[in-house]
TrEMBL record:
It comes from Lentilactobacillus hilgardii (strain ATCC 8290 / DSM 20176 / CCUG 30140 / JCM 1155 / KCTC 3500 / NBRC 15886 / NCIMB 8040 / NRRL B-1843 / 9). It comes from the Bacteria. PROSITE patterns: HTH_GNTR. The keyword DNA-binding applies. PANTHER family: REGULATORY PROTEIN GNTR HTH, TRANSCRIPTIONAL REGULATOR, GNTR FAMILY. The lineage of its organism: Bacteria, Bacillati, Bacillota, Bacilli, Lactobacillales. This is Transcriptional regulator, GntR family. Residues 12-80 form the HTH gntR-type domain. GO terms for molecular function: DNA binding; DNA-binding transcription factor activity. SUPFAM superfamilies: GntR ligand-binding domain-like (SSF48008), Winged helix' DNA-binding domain (SSF46785).
Length: 229
């Protein structure tokens, strides 16, 4: 069934709807291994969504290992089964303290490497998503706020320029947000988190891993306080 766009759509859920429908096509062999995924314009028309939504949905499928994108060769189906959900299962049952310790360990390493490897494009992306995040908070749009926040942290991960780290963190984050997402999208946290996130960006900009790690740890501590096991 086509996904219908509307004025108050939820960015994250819309991406999920598109990615899940394509995923179903692959898992039910309507699209076989070796087949090309329909072009962006065709997917946009099918689901009645914009290009950015299609691209985000494709990224989800790439992270699941179902498709492969090669410049000049299009997008190809490379797998028709979902990967082992070990991280998801572990996080679902893990104590809160262990889940947050794992997140801190990952993000500390990520932000440290991002300080060394970031470039002007990375900084521009981080700044852009913080601006979107701020606008969403003022409108009390939690879904848009969550989406922009995720994009900000994804931009930090991309700034490591390490594909292994990016894939590992993406798998972890998708499972982590399923369990704890409601706790870190509260608008009452926005003011304090806004200061923290701006300081994270500034530390990465100044290539100061000590300060970047300090603010990442402070952010995780703040979020952990809002979550009940």
């Amino acid at each position: 069934m086509p996904v219908k766009d509307h004025k108050q759509f939820k960015p994250l859920s819309l991406v999920d709807q598109v990615s899940q429908q394509i995923q179903e096509d692959i898992l039910t062999h309507q699209l076989a291994i070796g087949d090309r995924l329909p072009t962006e314009p065709k997917l946009m028309a099918r689901f009645n969504v914009g290009r950015s939504t299609v691209r985000e949905a494709i990224k989800v499928l790439v992270n699941l290992g179902l498709i492969e994108v090669k410049q000049g060769k299009g997008t190809t189906i490379i797998n028709d089964t979902l990967p082992d959900q070990t991280i998801s299962s572990t996080l679902k049952n893990a104590p809160v303290i262990e889940a947050y310790e794992a997140r801190k360990a990952l993000e500390v390493g990520i932000v440290d490497l991002a300080c060394h490897n970031r470039n002007a494009t990375d900084l521009k992306a981080m700044n852009y998503y913080l601006e979107i995040r701020s606008a969403a908070a003022k409108l009390h749009s939690l879904d848009a706020y969550r989406h922009a926040d995720e994009q900000f942290h994804e931009a930090i991960t991309e700034a490591t320029h390490n594909s292994v780290i990016t894939d590992i963190y993406t798998d972890f984050w998708n499972s982590f947000k399923d369990r704890f997402g409601a706790g870190f999208t509260k608008t009452e946290l926005y003011h304090e988190q806004s200061i923290i996130h701006q300081n994270i960006l500034e530390a990465i900009k100044q290539q100061d891993p000590h300060q970047a790690v300090y603010w990442i740890e402070k952010n995780i501590t703040l979020l952990k306080q809002t979550v009940n096991d």
